[in-house]
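Dear support,

I submitted the protein below through the web form. The confirmation email said the job was done, but the results page showed an empty box. After a refresh the structure appeared. I'm attaching both so you can tell me whether what I see now is the final result or a partial one.
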Amino acid sequence: MPSLHPGLPGTKEAYGLSLIREGGRVILPPAAVAHYGLIEGESVLLITTHRGEGGFAISRQQTAAGSVFAPYMAQVPALDAVIWAKEKAYALTKYTDGGICLTPEMLTAYHVRVGQRLMIVKSTTVVMSCTPAEIWAEKFAQRGMSLEVDNIQKLRLY
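What the results page shows now:
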């Protein structure tokens, strides 16, 4: 997994970029899938990351069940339904064929759109982060981190 600033400890480690395709399809980088132990046909939990920003985090349903997300996940009534709790959106969907499919309701809830590139980042032991690449580029640019902005463009697109 490439670091966005090799040799600088604590720099975000990115698995790659994932394009939101027509129909909301998002292919996840194989290294991210392996690291988080996603299994074909299993349900995953999607969670709002930062309020007011686009993007979401993904966790295996089994992993989320043993985390702070368990009470919220328990409120999701069905696959592909979105619920709101404490100003955050939660949804369960299936991991199939190397990715997930975002419904129109999920696209709206997570403030993302078809055609957008998500940077898939190692976040915590429980979740991977899927944030629009332009948000990362803007944050890095504000901090004068031009190397990191350039390295986003070099990430593999899935």
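Response: this is the final, complete result; the empty box was a page-load delay. The chain has a mean pLDDT of 89.
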